Amino acid sequence: MSTIFTQIVEGEIPARIVYEDETTMAFLDANPLAPGHTLVIPKDEYERLNDVPDDVASDLYETIHRLVPAVEDSVDADATTVAFNNGETAGQEVPHVHCHIVPRFEGDGGGPIHAVAGDRPDLADDELDDIAADIESRA
Ligand code: AMP
Question: I need a surface site. Which of 5, 25, 72, 74 has the fewest CB within 10 A?
């Protein structure tokens, strides 16, 4: 069963497509958080960012880089929040990688990306050192 975004890529369901190339596509979010809320996807189905091959990841970033100023200019936004819900626990509902470009406006009542997390952990220096070393060893 293909994802709803694959169905958009295949032209099986309608979408307001704003950009398309060989490997990526961008279209307006059907339930926008702000005017101009746009989703950027790889055309092929990958559930999470870590599943995306290097070359497609580069293409995806290139499209995001192209679309951010296009979206900001088109709705005269002051800024954008650009983010992925990467995995169900992080709020990902559609299991097909997608980048949200959400236009932001002075006084829009929204918050920074820091607002998405729950309680902040109280980490000691040695715990931070261990985490940093562990991430570095896997990067
Ligand atoms: P996420 O929670 O990160 O998986 O976000 C999925 C997003 O896809 C939501 O913002 C939905 O509004 C959006 N969405 C779901 N179905 C469609 C659709 N057919 N066309 C455009 N956007 C959609």
Answer: 74
